Amino acid sequence: MNIRSSDKLSSTPMKNQLTAIKFELDADFEQEAEALVGPPGQWRARRDLQLSFLSQFGLAKKDRFLDLGCGSLRLGLPLIDYLNVCNYTGVDIDPDCISVSRRLISLFDLHHKSPRIFLSRTFGLEELEQKPCFDIIWIFQVLIHLTNSHVEQAMRSISVFLADGGSAYGSAKIDDGLETISRKGDWRQYAYVHAPLSYYKKVCSKMGLQIQEIGAFNSDGWIDPTHPERLSMLKISKKLSD
Asked: pLDDT, tens digit, for every residue of 77-86?
């Protein structure tokens, strides 16, 4: 799927009303949840950005969805509500995120949707049954924090869990001036990395996956994709058989 850089993100909810309107938090709880996943003041904007992306990518209620790096359910709450029962699975490495996520599921009475939330240091490989059972895998703003071994583990998880015909989507800081992945700083206890697209292509190929750059974006949506250092949305799928 290719999206032109000039395309604008739609603010119209997708069919069957994927919306976050009912999941507004009070100021204190929003601050607590947001502190675990990003800078202050962007909880709603980053949630709505992801919902717009998923709308453009054609998310359907029947899709089985794996959220790698689900954080404190900024995206997860409206997805749990929208998707069919049992179709949302989230994993995260941070026990504080998992704790807040479970509180939010109780707060908004979403247990009847049977979401599965796991603490995992292996992108679900040790916690989930290893079979290709997810139509969409989401790894948004996670690759930007992963160094070599963790990138390989994340791609291995995608290769194991992605159903035939399914797609994984992730974001990465692409810098084509680099030869390989490079650590540029830290956020909380996590690295902050840039890498050339060729690096992710090489890792994906080892895992039987293929990857393509859909477009560059910022908090407002799609932007000019020609900048040599850019935040890019990537689409990952299984390699086609020869």
From this structure: 999 999 999 9
Give Cα separations from 116 to 66, 112, 139, 165, 192 (angstroms).
10, 11, 16, 23, 28
Which residues partner with 218 through β-bridges? 221
Instruction: Establish if 109 belongs to a structural domain.
Output: yes
Nearest 5°: the CA angle 207, 211, 11 is 135
- The CATH number for 193's domain is 3.40.50.150
Name the more confident of 12 and 48. 48
Say yes or no to pLDDT of 199 above 50: yes
The answer to whether 171 touches 232, Cβ cutoff 8 Å, is: yes
Instruction: Give residue 218's region: left, alpha or beta (phi > 0; psi -120 to 50).
Output: beta
Structure tokens at 216: 């560059």
Query: Helix (H, G, I), strand (E, B), or coil: what is residue 145?
Result: helix
Number of domains in the chain: 1
Domain that holds residue 184: 27-238
Burial of 161 (0-12, 13-18, 19+ CB in 10 A): buried
Task: Kindly provide the b/e burial profile for residues 183-214, where b requires at least 16 CB atoms within 10 angstroms of the residue's own CB.
Answer: eeeeeeebbebbbbbebbeebbeebebebebb
